[in-house]
Amino acid sequence: MAKTDIGVRVERARVAARLSQRALADMTGISQPTLSRVVSGQRPAKMPELVAIAWATGVTVAELAGIGTVAERSECAARATNHADMDRMREALLHFLELDDYLSAQAIPVNGLIEPGNVDSGD
């Protein structure tokens, strides 16, 4: 991913949040010249800076980094049997992937959270 791509997304987030570059710099603790270099692609943004920018602008770090949502990052193949509804299957899968992504981001181990008998099998 190019530095300029992140800079474009940072600029879009700043404009959408209706912040001047100076206001965003003040809110994030990033100097205005450094923020300007990030936006122009002259300097890569560091992860703590992306976190601060995301917090100040109300977007996610994934959006600034161009990672996309779990649904956008996921590819899956399934075969419907017994008249299963593929849309409902995809929705359920994405729900679990979003939950897994959230737990991973929060550093919450999944082991032990789900035990046999605690999961609704949809019957």
Report what the structure shows.
- There is one protein chain.
- By secondary structure, the protein is mainly α.
- The chain has 2 domains: 3-65, 434 Repressor (Amino-terminal Domain), CATH 1.10.260.40; 70-105, no CATH class.
- Helix content is 58%, strand content 0%.
- The protein has 7 helices and no strands.
- α1 packs across α3 (32-40) and α1 packs parallel to α4.
- The longest helix has 20 residues, at 86-105.
- The model is unreliable at 112-116 and 118-123 (pLDDT under 50).
Structural class: mainly alpha
- Level-1 CATH class name of the largest domain: Mainly Alpha
- The average pLDDT value, as a whole number, equals 78
CATH architecture of the largest domain: Orthogonal Bundle
Strand fraction equals under 5%
Distance between the termini: 44 Å
Unreliable stretches: 112-116, 118-123
Helix content: 55-70%
CATH topology of the largest domain: 434 Repressor (Amino-terminal Domain)
Largest sheet: none
Number of domains: 2
Radius of gyration: 20 Å
* Overall spatial form: elongated
- Name of the CATH superfamily of the largest domain: lambda repressor-like DNA-binding domains
User: How many helices?
Assistant: 7
